[in-house]
Amino acid sequence: MSPPKIPSVVVRGLEPEAAVSSIARDRPSQPPWSRILLGLAVAGPALWLGGVPSIVVPLFCAMVLALWVRLCTRSESPLRVPSGAYIGLFAAGLTLLQWMPLPLFLRELMAPGLTAHVAAALAGSGATPWPGLSPVPGDSALEAARLLALTALFVAAAQMSWRISAGMVALAGSLVALIGLTQAAFGVEAIYGLYQPLQVDPTVTPALLTTFVNANHQAGLFLLGIFSAGALAVHMRMQGRTATDPGLVGRLRERRLAALAALAIQGAALLLSLSRAAIVALAVVAPVALMFAWRKGPAPSSRSGRDPQDRLWLQRGALAVGLGMLALVVARQGAWAELATLWHVDEAETKFRIASDAVALIDLSPALGVGRGAFLDLFPAVDSRPLGVVHTHLESAPAAMLIEWGPLGGGLVALGLLWWWIAAMYTTGSGRQVNARRVALCGPLALAIHNLADFNLEFLGVAAPLCALAGSLSERRGFVRAPARAALLVGGLVLAVAGSLALWAQPYTWQNRSAGDEAIASGDMSPEAAQRMRPLDASLHILLAQRALEMEDWAQARARATVASELQPANSDAWLRRAHAARELGDAAESASALARTLATMRHPPDLDLTRYLLVRYPNAEELAPLMPKELAPWAVVMESLIAEAPAYAAILAAARSQVDGREPPVLHMQVRLALALDNPSLALHYARLLRMLAPHEVHSHLLLARALESQRVPRERELQHDLEEALSQGLVTDPAQVALLEETLLGSFLRDGQPDVLARARELLPRLLARPGDRAALQRRHALERALAKAGR
Asked: How many C-beta atoms surround the C-beta of residue 234 within 10 A?
C-alpha cells in the first residue's frame, strides 16, 4: 500500500523559501529572538563608531555566538550551510596560519624576506620576535577572530528569509543616516555630541558626520541599504500585484512606502558623504537594479480598486523626478563638485599610486602574504612619495588581499567572492522573488566596486551587514545541511575561541599602541616584550631610541634610530635621534648626513626646541647652509621656524639659496617675510612685487604685497586697495576660501582709510564676504570687521 500523499503547506502568496524563515521556526508565544539578535549583530557595529574600535570584535563574537545558539536550539532541523561559507573559512584559516607559532625553518621557507626583515630590526636589542609569520600578531589574531565571526553570521543569516536580512540592513543604514542628518540639522560636530574624530575637520571636509569616523565607510553601508530597501520595495510591489485581500494590499502599500523612504534617506546621506567611489558605484549599478526592478512580473489580479497598469509609467516618472530633485538639492552641498575631481589626473594618480607602490611588499612573503594588518608598518619603507600621512590600511580591497594574504591566497579569496555573486545571481529561485533578490544582490556588487578604492570592509560596520545580506541571498542550490546539535558544538566552540583570541589581541592592536608606549614609559612593560609583538613599528623604535639617549646609551640609541629610519625613511624624528647618537659616538659624517635627512623630511615647521638645537649646534649659518634641504618645500618649512626665532640667521640662509633659486616663489616668499621681520619695508616691497609678477595666481603673493604696502613708513592704502580689487576682478585667485582672505584684507584697508567713498565701497563688499562659507575663526574675523564698519559709519 502506497503512503498517503501529504498536501503542501505553502500558503498562497508565499514562496517555499519561507520554510527556512525564522518566522516559521520561532514559536509565536516568544519574542523573535533570532531576528532581534540578527538586528543587533547587523546594526550594533555600525552604531558603535562604525565598528572601528578593536573592542567591538570580541563583543561582536559574543553577539554572533548568542545568535548561533538560538538558531541551533530552537528546532531540531539541520542548519543550511551555503558553499560561500567555505570562502570565509579559508580566509580565516589563512589568517590563523599567519598568526600561529611556527618553526623558524618554516617561516624562512614561506616568508624569507619578512623573516630576515624582522630579525634585522631586533638585532642587538635582546628581544625575540613572535614565532609566527605575521609581524603584527595582535592585528592578525583580531582579524582571524573577526573573519570567523563574520562567517558564522553568514551561515546564521542563511537560515532566515532574505527579506529579514535586507530589512535589517536597510534599517541599520537608515538609522545611521538619520543620526547624521539630525546632527547636521543641530550643528553637532561630534558623533552623538560626545566623540570628535581626530582626522575629521568639518571646516575642511564638509561630509555628513554620522556614527562612522570615516565618511567613505558609511557610504559603503548606505550602498547596501539603498539596494536592500529597493529590493523590499520591489518585492512588496510584486506581491501586491497578485494579492486579493484589500487589507493585505493596504499593508503592502504602506511597507513599500516605508522601503522607498529608507531608500531616499540613505541616498541623500550617501551623496552628502561626498564619497566619490561610492557615488560612481551607485551610478554604475543603479541602472542594472532598475532594469531588474521594472522587469515584468506576475500578472495583476482582477480585484477592484487596484491601480491600472497604464499608471505604472507615471509612477516611474514621478519617482525619477523626485530622485532628480533630491540629487539637485544635495549637489549644492558639494557632492558633484567632489565627483568632478575624478577627472583630475593628479587626483586619480595619487589615489592608486599607493597600491602600485605596495606591490613591492609581495616579495617579502610571496607564499602566504605579509600578514593581515602588517601594511601599517611595512608600507613606509616602499612609499615612493611620502606625504607625511599615516596609512593604516591599503585603500583597495583587492590589492590588500593579494599583498596581505599573498597572490595565491588573496587571489583565491577574490575569485571565490566573484564566483559566489555569480552563483547567487543565477540561482535566485523563481516567481516574484527573483527580481527582488537580484536587486538586493546589486548591493554587494556596488560595494565591491566601491572597495576598489576604499577599505571599509576592514571594519564590522560594513562587513557585518554585508555578510548578513550575503548569507540570506546565497545560492538556492549547492549547500550542505549540518545537524543542529553538531553545529551547536562546533560553531559554539569556534566562536568561543574567536572571542577569546580577540580579547587576547586587544593590547597588541594598532589602535592600542599608544597605551603600550605609555606602559613602557611607566615601566609596566619591558621594551623586549613590546618589540616581540611590534618588531617593525618605527614609532616604538623611536621611543626606545629616545629612552636610550636619556640613559646615555649611545650605541643602543643609534641602533634603534637606525632601524626606525629604515622602516620609515621619511620620519624626521628617527633621523634626528640618529644624528644625535652618531654625534655622541664621534661619527661626524653620519651625524651631518642624518641631520640633513632630518631637515629634508620636515613636513611641518620644527618646534622651538629643535630650532634652538640647530642654532646651538650650528652657531654660524654658513655651517648649516650645506645641510639645508635641496627641495623648496621642506626648505621653506625649516625657514618658517628660523625666521620667528632668529631672522638675521635666516636671512643668511635665504641669501645663500637666492644665489641658486632667486626667482622661485617660495624663496621670494621668505625674502618678503625676512625683510618685514628685519624692518626693511622697501626691500619687502621690492620682493613682494616680484613675487606677485611671478606667481599671480597664488593668494600669498597678493597678501604679502598688501602687508608690504601697509608696512611702508607712510602706508599706501590706495595702492593696496587697487591691487586687491584688480586681483579680485580679474579672477586671479579662484578658491572661495582664498578669495575670502583677499576680501577680508581689502575690507581692513577700507576701514583704515576711513574716507566716506571708501566706506561706501566697504558696505558693498561686506554682504558678499559674509555670505562665503568659512570656519569658526574666519566667521569671527568677518563679524569683527562688520562691527568695525558699523562703528565707522556712525
From this structure: 27
Burial of 510 (0-12, 13-18, 19+ CB in 10 A): buried
Sign of CA dihedral 710, 713, 717, 719: negative
For the chain, which residues score pLDDT lower than 50?
1-27, 303-310, 342-343, 345
**Do residues 114 and 475 touch, judged by C-beta distance below 8 A?**
no
DSSP codes joined into one string, 398-414? HHHHHHHSHHHHHHHHH
What Rg, from alpha-carbon coordinates, does the chain have?
32
Task: At 480, give phi and psi (nearest 5°).
Answer: -110, 160
Q: How far apart are CA 529 and CA 525, in angstroms?
A: 7
Rounded to two decimals, the pTM is 0.86
Paired residues of 195 in beta bridges: 191
Strands 79-81 and 480-482: antiparallel
For residue 79, what is the enclosing H or E element?
strand 79-81
Q: Where are the beta strands (DSSP E) in 689-793?
A: none
The answer to whether the CB of 769 falls within 8 A of the CB of 740 is yes
Cβ pair 475, 83 in contact under 8 A: yes
Residue 84 has what pLDDT?
93
| Identity of the residue numbered 512 | N
What is Dmax (Cα atoms) for the chain? 119
The separation between the first and the last C-alpha atoms of the chain, rounded to the nearest angstrom, is 111
